[in-house]
Specification:
Elements (H helix, E strand, L loop, with lengths): L1 H27 L3 H20 L3 H24 L5 H28 L3 H26 L11 H13 L3 H26 L3
Helix pairs in contact: 1-3, 2-3, 2-4, 3-4, 3-6, 4-5, 5-7, 6-7
Length: 196
């Protein structure tokens, strides 16, 4: 519960900080969906540098791309441009952005024959997607399943820090373990609520 409060507080602060930028973007006619796609392509470019072993450059590019993930939702909410497709697109591109990053790391570690890195990349990709899938599937059952200690926000914060400070293996360990814990938390919640 405390983690969710911190997450919500940071989201509120970021929205307030980005409000002037959002008003400027709105005047240009840029749509939230355009920002969403832009963020994905920036993240994909960052993943390319990660694949090349240039973790610091890739980390900075992905950090920049993550700002777009905040901007699209803020623009949609503040300027009354929310659409069902926009929410769908945001979720899909979030998964794509994570997927290309973990794939880039997997290929990189395969290239240098680092078995630990390869296994961790697979574990992180699998558990991260499972965290998101459980929430989506629970939504279909009309169960709010946003609980858990490690959502996409935390995963991206940890992997970006790992890239910037060259502690990627440690970051992958953290994400793998805490994502699996989150999967268990969400599974238990759905198990409890779906019985009623």
């Amino acid at each position: 519960m405390a983690i969710k409060k911190i997450r919500d507080f940071l989201k509120l602060i970021s929205e307030k900080t980005l409000t002037p930028v959002v008003f400027l973007l709105n005047k240009t006619g840029i749509t939230p969906n355009f920002i969403t796609w832009s963020g994905f392509f920036i993240n994909a470019a960052g993943a390319f540098f990660v694949f090349s072993g240039e973790f610091l450059t890739g980390g900075f590019i992905i950090l920049f791309g993550s700002l777009f993930d905040l901007l699209d939702g803020t623009l949609a909410r503040k300027m009354d441009k929310k659409t069902r497709f926009g929410g769908f697109l945001d979720s899909v591109t979030d998964r794509l952005s994570e997927g290309v990053l973990y794939l880039a790391l997997l290929v990189y570690y395969s290239g240098i024959n680092n078995l630990t890195g390869i296994i961790l990349c697979y574990a992180v990709m699998f558990s991260s997607f499972l965290v998101s899938y459980i929430r989506a599937r629970a939504g279909g059952l009309r169960i709010d399943c946003s609980v858990g200690i490690f959502t996409r926000f935390e995963r991206m914060a940890v992997i970006i820090a790992g890239l910037l400070f060259n502690y990627v293996i440690i970051a992958l360990w953290i994400i793998a373990v805490l994502s699996i814990i989150t999967v268990i938390q969400r599974f238990m919640l759905v198990n409890e609520q779906a019985k009623s």
